[in-house]
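Hello forum,

I keep getting stuck at the same step: I have a sequence, I want structure tokens, and every attempt I make locally crashes halfway through. Rather than fight my setup again tonight, could one of you with a working pipeline run this one for me? It's a single chain of 169 residues.
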Amino acid sequence: MDHQRRRPGDSRATADERGVASAIYGLVVCSATLAAASASGELSFVAVSVLVTVVVYWLAESYAHALARHAVEQEPLGWSGTLATLSQGWPMVSASFIPLGALLAMGALGASVFVAINVSLAVATVLLVGAGWTASRASGLRGWRLLTSTAMSAVFGLTMVALKNLLHV
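Reply #2:
Ran it on my machine without issues. Output:
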């Protein structure tokens, strides 16, 4: 990605924006599913639940974008447009791979489901903070605004950690 600022109407800027937003959203969906599915006590169930949920959200979001584009532009969306819409949202799914990898690695190392999920949630939270910081810096935020924006990303992850540990001890 080049470092020139793109105009808001630029289609590459829109695709980049959607990719960043999708990755952040994917991490939140991944974390929420980790927290909710942890009640099962089964590592494989949790992993499959996360992957299926994130894929369903990706498909639903892509469908919504495709319909919106079709409605606004008043022209049919062909295969190339459909593939572009799907690829722009793919970061929603790929963002979950690192937390899922941490979950499975902890399980393979013999950690309890409780520990594996908490480590995975911690990894997702760190990724959320990193994504929030990077996106906030790229948007020109500095000082307390940068810290506040980044803290909002951390709040999402920490909320999921708290919910998981309060509801599914």
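The chain is about 80% helix and 0% strand. If your local run keeps crashing, start a new thread with the error log.
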